[in-house]
Q: What sequence folds into this?
């Protein structure tokens, strides 16, 4: 009886220990889980290997200070890895996990949404027939405190102070510096130094990859073939005053056209025909007019107000009350106010319902709530069940990274300098016409200002889509945007050496 009791107690203790280990929410700093899969991309069968794991971030003393979770897809049976491109993918925020492009854009699996990109239930994932895995291996990286990535305790079992965390990780330049070093280690470990390399970033991720282009080149001696900016931020290229105010109007026009709020003369135009006209108006009439401020003539102001009303679906009274400078939030609240509806910020095709029709800004962002309730269950299921990555850590869709140090943001200038130094480096920008957070005309403006000399414009390109911030959620744009990435990768690998011209 005594032996039986002791055995029972020992068994209970073992179960208790196992439970405590299973529920201890700590990252394993350096490991990976490998699984094997197959899919069809553009009708061709593709076999691939998925690695989901972690790799440390080290400080200058060689001590691990954080660990980043990643997912890495490799196409099987590649004869020459030196010719096989590597696409490294980041999302933004800052503070967002690399989940959006992973499970909705370039990866082998995408979330279940309808053809326009709206969520459906039951949740889950399906094969992505347009993934670029056929032409490039893909690495999705979660920066510190996003996804399963975490800061590590020091030798005394303590986390660094908030100030130290900010210094090491949470700022424009700190983020770029530690990620460049991490990428160097990953490329070395996985024998990818000879491979053509590409960065793709979305939203704040465009600031990240723009800065990484020069950081990798000058500090890690790693040269890229391409950088893809999806729904870019200003990347440090300022758009202030009249330019900031006027650049919103083409986006307003696109959104009003989508919701059929324009006069018939403009509503019957194709979206591209309309935007060509509105862009011309913005550059040649509106920016100069707003520049004059209170000294603009009444005749010129009246003309601008009438044209803006025709292009945006807003009333002349409302435009006059805002002195030609309509905040985004006011537009989202005003356009469909008479219908009791508000517009989404990241994708203005989405509609919201506020507590009061009155007010100057929406209560919430309908597109973000829709996306979170479809992406969150999908990524947790996918990593744990299909990629077999088991952990009790919470997957941070948005992690604690604030306050973020935005000082000395030279990402755009750094990208320009990287292009100037590296004649192999190409840049493509992708934007949705209905994105109000990082509007498409701001993205065009950024591209124009990225190379003021015009000497590298043949290596810069822009692609627009009839959707929002995550243009790839719409089925038609998932196909076309992936094809644009595929073509960009294939066309930016020269068969002969680029020429360094000497004067």
A:
């Amino acid at each position: 009886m005594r032996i039986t009791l002791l055995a029972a107690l020992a068994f209970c203790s073992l179960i208790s220990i196992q439970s405590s280990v299973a529920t201890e929410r700590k990252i394993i700093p350096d490991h990976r889980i490998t699984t094997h899969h197959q899919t069809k991309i553009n009708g061709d069968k593709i076999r691939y290997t998925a690695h989901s794991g972690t790799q440390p971030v080290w400080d200058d003393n060689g001590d691990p200070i954080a660990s980043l979770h990643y997912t890495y897809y490799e196409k099987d049976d590649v004869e020459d890895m030196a010719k096989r491109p590597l696409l490294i993918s980041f999302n933004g925020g800052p503070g967002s996990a690399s989940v959006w492009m992973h499970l909705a854009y370039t990866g082998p699996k995408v979330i279940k949404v309808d053809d326009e990109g709206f969520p459906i239930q039951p949740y889950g994932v399906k094969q992505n027939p347009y993934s670029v895995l056929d032409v490039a291996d893909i690495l999705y990286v979660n920066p510190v405190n996003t996804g399963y990535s975490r800061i590590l305790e020091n030798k005394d079992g303590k986390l660094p102070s908030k100030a130290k965390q900010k210094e090491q990780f949470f700022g424009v330049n700190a983020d770029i510096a530690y990620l460049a070093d991490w990428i160097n280690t990953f490329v070395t470990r996985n024998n990818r130094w000879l491979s053509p390399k590409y960065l793709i970033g979305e939203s704040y991720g465009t600031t990240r990859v723009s800065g990484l282009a020069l950081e990798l080149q000058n500090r890690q001696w790693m040269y890229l073939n391409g950088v893809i900016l999806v729904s870019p931020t200003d990347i440090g290229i300022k758009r202030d005053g009249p330019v900031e105010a006027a650049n919103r109007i083409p986006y307003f026009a696109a959104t009003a056209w989508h919701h059929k709020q324009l006069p018939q003369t403009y509503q019957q135009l194709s979206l591209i025909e309309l935007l060509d006209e509105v862009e011309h108006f913005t550059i040649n009439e509106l920016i100069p007019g707003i520049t004059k401020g209170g000294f603009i003539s009444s005749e010129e102001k009246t003309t601008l107000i009438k044209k803006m009303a025709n292009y945006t679906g807003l009333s002349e009274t409302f435009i006059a009350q805002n002195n030609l400078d309509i905040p985004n939030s006011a537009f989202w609240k005003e356009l469909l106010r008479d219908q009791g509806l508000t517009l989404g910020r990241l994708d203005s095709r989405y509609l919201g319902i506020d507590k009061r029709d009155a007010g100057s800004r929406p209560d919430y962002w309908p597109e973000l709530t829709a996306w979170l309730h479809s992406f969150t269950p999908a990524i947790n299921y996918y990593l744990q069940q299909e990629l077999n990555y088991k952990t009790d850590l919470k997957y941070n869709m948005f992690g604690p990274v604030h306050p973020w140090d935005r000082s000395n943001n030279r990402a755009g200038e750094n990208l320009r300098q990287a292009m100037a130094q590296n004649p192999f480096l190409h840049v493509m920008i992708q934007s949705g016409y209905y994105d109000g957070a990082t509007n498409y005309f701001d993205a065009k403006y950024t591209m124009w200002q990225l190379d003021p000399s015009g000497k590298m414009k043949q290596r810069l390109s822009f692609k627009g889509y009839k959707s929002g911030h995550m243009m790839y959620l719409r089925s038609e744009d998932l196909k076309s945007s992936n094809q644009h990435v595929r073509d960009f990768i294939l066309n930016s690998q020269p068969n002969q050496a680029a020429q360094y011209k000497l004067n």
User: Anything to note?
Assistant: Residues 241-366 form one domain. Residues 1-23, 499-503 have pLDDT under 50 and may be disordered. The chain is about 40% helix and 15% strand. The CA atoms of residues 2 and 8 lie 10 Å apart.
